[in-house]
Amino acid sequence: MSVTIQAADFDCGQEIVAITKGRDDIGAIASFIGLVRADPLAGEKINAMTLEHYPGMTEKALAEIVAQAKSRWDLQAVRVIHRIGRLVTGEQIVLVVVAASHRGSAFAACEFIMDFLKTKAPFWKKEETTHHGQWVEARDADESAADRWTK
Amino acid sequence: MSVTIQAADFDCGQEIVAITKGRDDIGAIASFIGLVRADPLAGEKINAMTLEHYPGMTEKALAEIVAQAKSRWDLQAVRVIHRIGRLVTGEQIVLVVVAASHRGSAFAACEFIMDFLKTKAPFWKKEETTHHGQWVEARDADESAADRWTK
Amino acid sequence: MSIQLLYFAGLREALGVATEHLELPAGVDTVAALRELLAARGSPWTALVTTKNLRAAVNQKMAGPDTLLQAGDEVAFFPPVTGG
Amino acid sequence: MSIQLLYFAGLREALGVATEHLELPAGVDTVAALRELLAARGSPWTALVTTKNLRAAVNQKMAGPDTLLQAGDEVAFFPPVTGG
After folding, report:
1. How far apart are CA C36 and CA C34, in angstroms?
2. From CA B2, how far away is CA B87, in angstroms rounded?
3. Helix (H, G, I), strand (E, B) or coil at B16
4. pTM of the full predicted structure?
5. Min CA distance, A108 vs chain C (Å)?
6. Total structural domains within chain D
């Protein structure tokens, strides 16, 4: 299974071992991890965030994003893990691992998957400080990042 | 120490933990691993390769590449590990991990470091099959990849 | 015809409802018409037409205002996504 | 003046030498002149001028043909790098 939505944490190293074990044809692995950052919010520091998702559609959207990446680049393996539920600052949110023969494809596909995940996969973040909770607003920069792949 | 040349293998997950432990300001980690691929050579499959380097200059070149990346992007941590000696197919050769607040900087800096490592750091690979040994020739594509950052 | 409705994130909280079954009156057969029908319930449902960039999905695929609705459809409304 | 010379990878194998101390004759004070001096030893040393894209480093920094040499310098010759 290349896409998993889970509450549990993940280990990037273990996922890479699972992809590469017994293979000798992979030359490049690009990976990305997103983490909960203690940004300021309403004069306080963010302590945690809660990730909500749309069960069923999320899996389909991520599978579609991975399929698009595989059609654009020659990839040997893709692994996506996205966590849901409450995560405190410093915790890992998302992992994308892409294996390919060459590094150009691995980097491009990994960034492509992240850009589309950020704009097409139905996840929503609610940030919390000690006294406040606030849904994160979508960033225009994320839309622009996704748009550049359609040019 | 952000740059290490070693014969021993490395664990991407452990290096990421070492970078993120006790911090809550990192939002994005991009990483890259290069592996020994069983390409064809002189009608046989590559079994292994031997990595030679220029002790002293290699460390300086890598430190300079990391310093350049840090001056171009706002980075929170960089870790580079490059192995030397004989490595069989499927083994890991190089690891680059870049931590930043945002994913754009993390991806760009990670790719920048790999492109410059491939063209500026004094390492040389000799590939071997059962009956042949051959020094790898530098690829024009690697020079082009490094050149695009100077535009 | 009847459909299944889902609301997510800030919209779900504003409405105080996560899911509902709805019997659509004759003539309400597009996403846009459904949004108008829900907004006509008054506050807080006016959010269905006033929320900036509100997204819709029909049967778990992104849908536009003209997407046609059919009996048994699963229709979801939510703000722009912010995962990753 | 004397310098320390280093050869790497395919060049080291072709020459059969990894390092040497060398007393430079008067007038040989650039990387280009040093390459000519070494090539004049005959085969296999002609590789110092015939090898395509041969790289040079002086005191562990990339150097060009005009880079000046000084007593005690560490000068290295090697093919284009192929790590990573």
Report:
1. 5
2. 23
3. helix
4. 0.95
5. 17
6. 1
Q: Is residue C83 part of a domain?
A: no
Residue range(s) defining the domain that contains residue C48: 2-78
Which of D8, D76, D84 lies nearest to residue B34, judging by beta carbons?
A: D84
Contact D82 B138 (CB under 8 A): yes
Helices (H), B31-148: 57-72, 103-120, 140-147
Task: Assess if residue D61 is contained within a domain.
Answer: yes
Query: What 3-state DSSP class applies to A2?
Result: coil
What ipTM does the predicted assembly reach?
0.94
Tens-binned pLDDT, residue by residue, of chain B (151 aa): 699 999 999 999 999 999 999 999 999 999 999 999 999 888 899 999 999 999 999 999 999 999 999 999 999 999 999 999 999 999 999 999 999 999 999 999 999 999 999 999 999 999 999 999 999 999 888 989 999 998 7
Label residue D45 left, alpha or beta by phi (over 0 means left) and psi (-120 to 50 means alpha). Answer: alpha
User: Mind telling me how many Å the CA of A106 is from chain B's nearest CA?
Assistant: 9
Size of interface A-C (CB pairs under 8 A): 73
What CATH code is carried by the domain that includes residue D62? 3.10.20.30
Residues 6 or more apart in contact with residue D5 via CB below 8 angstroms:
D19, D20, D21, D22, D75, D76, D77
Residue among C61, C78, C81 whose CB faces A119 most closely: C81
| Residues in chain B closer than 8 A to A100 (CB atoms) | none
Domains of chain A: residue spans and CATH = 2-150 (3.90.1170.40)
Is the Cβ–Cβ distance between C19 and C2 less than 8 Å? no
E strand or H helix at A49: strand A48-53
CB interface of C with A, residues 19-38, below 8 Å: none
| C60 at interface of A, judged by CB pairs closer than 8 A | yes
Task: Output DSSP code: residue B130.
Answer: S
How many of the other CB atoms lie within 10 Å of CB of B62? Answer: 27
Place of tokens 């290349």: A2
What mean pLDDT is predicted for residues D78-84? 96
Q: Is residue C6 less than 8 Å (CB to CB) from chain A?
A: yes
- Chains touching chain A at 3 or more Cβ pairs under 8 angstroms? B, C
The CA distance from C16 to C34, in Å, is 18
Mind listing the pLDDT tens digit for each residue in B75-109? 999 999 999 999 999 999 999 999 999 999 999 99
